[in-house]
Amino acid sequence: MNKAEPRTNEVLLKDNKDWLHFARPYQLITAEKPSDVLRALQEIERLVFVNHWYAAGFLSYEAA
Are the beta carbons of 13 and 20 closer than 8 angstroms? Predict the structure, then answer.
């Protein structure tokens, strides 16, 4: 078995029977500390609404 090359800034999600592949993001938004989380989520929500984009990524419960 060959090892797959690691990929950066890609998300693969299963939605019911379909796989969704997100790559080459328009923008990356990060929260470095807990006080940044709400602001980051609000910015993501704004960008999704204004640009009709999808948002895909990772948020852990430790963030808040």
Answer: yes
* 21, 36 Cβ separation under 8 angstroms: no
Whole-angstrom distance, CA of residue 61 vs CA of residue 63 = 5
Q: For the whole model, what pTM was predicted?
A: 0.75
Q: Which amino acid is present at 61? A: Y
CA 33 to chain centre: 17
Query: pLDDT tens per residue, the chain (64 residues)?
Result: 567 777 788 999 998 999 999 999 999 999 988 899 999 999 999 999 999 999 999 887 676 5
